[in-house]
Every structure is written in C-alpha cells, then in structure tokens.
Amino acid sequence: MAEDTFFNGQTKVDTPNDKITYHVYGFRSAQHSNARPDSIEGFLNNVYERFLNEQKLDEQGLRDRISKLKAEVLQEKTKKNDTNAEIASHKRLKDDKEQEIEELDLEKIDIRNGDIETGDTIPFVIGSFITLLLTLYLFVFYSSSGYSAFYGIKKGSLGFINPNVFIDAKNKGGGVVALIMLFPVIFLGLGFLIHDSIETNKKLSNQNKPRKFTLITLLLLITLIADIFIGYKISQGVHVNEFNAGLTNEPWNFQMVLTDINFYLILVLGFVVYVIWGLLLNYVFSHPYLQPENEKIKLMLENINNKISDKRKELSDIINKIHKLESEIITSESKIQEKENDIIGYENGVIPLNIESLKGSLGEFMGGWQAFTNNNFSKADSDALIGETIKVQDNWLNLKIKNLNSDK
C-alpha cells in the first residue's frame, strides 16, 4: 500500500489519493517507532520530501503562479510608491511643525521683551541716576529743615539749609542725631506708598476697573501739610532772628507767612521736588527692567507654552509615523525582492521553498507525534520524550534552513 511505503522511508506518495495528513502521519510514525526521539529524523526527511512534491506544479499551474507573483509584485510596488508619497507628505508636515514651534519660541521672546525697547535703556539709566540723587537731596533737605523746625534756627542761617546740621545734632546728643537721620525716612516712605498706589491703579485699569485716587491724594496732602508746618516754623524762626538783630521792627504775626519768600521757597524745594521724586521713583520701579512678569504676560506665555507642547506632541507623532512608514518601505522592498526571486526561480525551473509553509507542515506532523506520545506514556515519560523529540526536530530544521541558504 502507498501508506505502507510512506512508513517504510519512501520519499513520496505515488498519487494524491494515497496521501494521508501530516498529523496522521506524525501519529503513526510515533506509533511505528514507539516515539523514540532518535528515530524522528528519518520521518522528518519523509515529510520534507513529501512537502517538496506538493510544491511541484504543472505547466498551467506554473504560469498561474508566476502571473500571481507578478501581480503581487506590482501591487507591492504600488504600495511602496504610495508609502513614499506619504513619507514625503509627512516630512513636509514635520518641517511645518518645526517652523511653527520656532515661531512660537520667538513669540515668547517678543512677549518678554515687548515692553523693553532699546530706546528705553538710556531714559531708564538717566531716570534711575536722577532718582538716586533726588533721594539723597531729600534726605539732606528734610534732615536740615526738620532740625531747624524742631530746634530753632541759628543766626545767619536760612533754616532749610544748614551745612552743619549733623554736627549740631551730635552736640545735642544721640537722640537728636537719630531723629534727624530718621525724620527724612517718613517722607521717603510716603513717596514709596504713592508709588504703590499708582501701581495699584494701573492694575485696576488693566482689569477695566475704576481707579482710586483717595490714598494718593491723602498721602500728598499729608506731605504738603508737613511741608507747610516746616515752612511756617522756619519762616517764623528767620523773622524772629531778624527782629532780635534789629533788622526789622515788626514782630512776627501769622499773616506774614503769606508774604515770606522763605515759606514758598521751602514748598518749592521740598514739596514740589518731592512730587517730582515720587513720579521718577514710580517710573524707575515700574520699568520693565525691574518688573517681574505681570499676570497678563504670564497668561500669554502659558498659552504659548501649551501651544508649543501640543505642537511638539504633533511633531513626535509625525516623526513616529515617518519611522513606521520607512519600516514599511523596507518590508515592501524585502517582499518585492523575495517575490521577484521566486519568479526567477519558477521561470528557470527552480521551485522556491516557502520556509513558513514547511514549518507549518512540520508543526502538523509534530502535533500527531505528540498526540500518540501523550496518550501512550505517563505524563513524566511523555514530557521527557516530547522534549527530546522537539530538540531533535529543531536541530534538523535549523540545519535544513542553513543548507537551503547555502544553496542559494
């Protein structure tokens, strides 16, 4: 029988009707050899020869196979061209995304530097220098005028300018020195509060809320009243010195302050300069060089950062897509080369061997072999036999594939 010749080492079955499945052949081969691992190579060779016979085609089948492979090659080339076009499109998208990210980064720089132009640098430096000098001036002015208002005016002095104020204060004791040193701080502190109130109004204006000038008016009024008192005391002291020196015969009365040039001079050199200093102080402190990022800028930067983050994610997806498509190109080229080699083989009478199909046939055979082994031996014995058999089968297949590659 044809089935018996298959068992007895024949390399092929005479007719298709005589063939049995690989699974059944594996089962009967294990039965015939009592599942000995050292006997499986002969049966594997039979399976291989049978597999080769099954690959043979008649003339019409050969033409059909070649035609089918050529169609598959054409289809694969079309797919490759489409993939190349898609890669080119994604690369353009990649360049566009990178350009968008670069523009957003530049926009961030513009936002941070938008309020600071090169032309503003010189006015800022000059304003800072003048503010510093006016601060020193106001310190000296209020030290001198405060001392004169509290402790009287020396003969021959104008009161608000006393070049020896600190020496005179030192002669009167440490407490007087401390008072004269700290007295100008009151006015400097009032000036800083005015600056803070102006900044508060700016924030209210940015929020489209009504501005509040009550505090600013009150602070300016307090400073003006203080300067009026100082001016009055100094004008009175100067007049009293002149009366005592016999330079005037009219004693001091309140109405005289309205016509005394010293009074108005103190208001100009004190209060007016103080207001100018306060405005310059606000200009310097509110300048973008010294300002932290305001809430509007922070919100704008946060919005741009979110856009950049989204763009970077999109860019990453595009790059991953490009890599995937490039991998598909490599796969397509490999398939095209493989199919073209198969076409050449069929056209020249060399039947190409499909390794995956061979592995499938061997797997079906091994399934039958293992089925017999599991049903006829204990679990421990069957596991040991199957393990050894699989090792032999793997070595046989690796050697067969190696020889096939060498033949190519």
Task: Characterise the protein shown here.
The chain has 408 residues and is an all-alpha fold. It contains twelve helices and no strands. It has helices at 2-7, 22-33, 40-55, 59-113, 121-151, 165-172, 174-206, 214-244, 261-285, 295-347, 355-376, 379-407. The longest helix has 55 residues, at 59-113. The radius of gyration is 52 Å and the shape is rod-shaped. 19% of the residues are buried. Mean pLDDT is 80; it is low at 1-18 and 115-119.
Summarize the entry for a quick read.
Keywords: Coiled coil, Membrane, Transmembrane, Transmembrane helix. Helix 4 runs antiparallel to helix 10 (about 295-345) and helix 8 (about 215-245) runs antiparallel to helix 9 (about 260-285).
Strand content: under 5%
Q: What structural class do the secondary elements suggest?
A: mainly alpha
Q: What Rg is obtained from the alpha carbons, in whole angstroms?
A: 52 Å
Number of helices: 12
Order of helices and strands: HHHHHHHHHHHH
Give a short account of the largest sheet: none
Q: Could you estimate the helical fraction of the residues in percent?
A: over 70%
Keywords: Coiled coil, Membrane, Transmembrane, Transmembrane helix
Transmembrane segments: 122-142, 173-194, 215-234, 261-285
Coiled coil: 52-114, 294-342
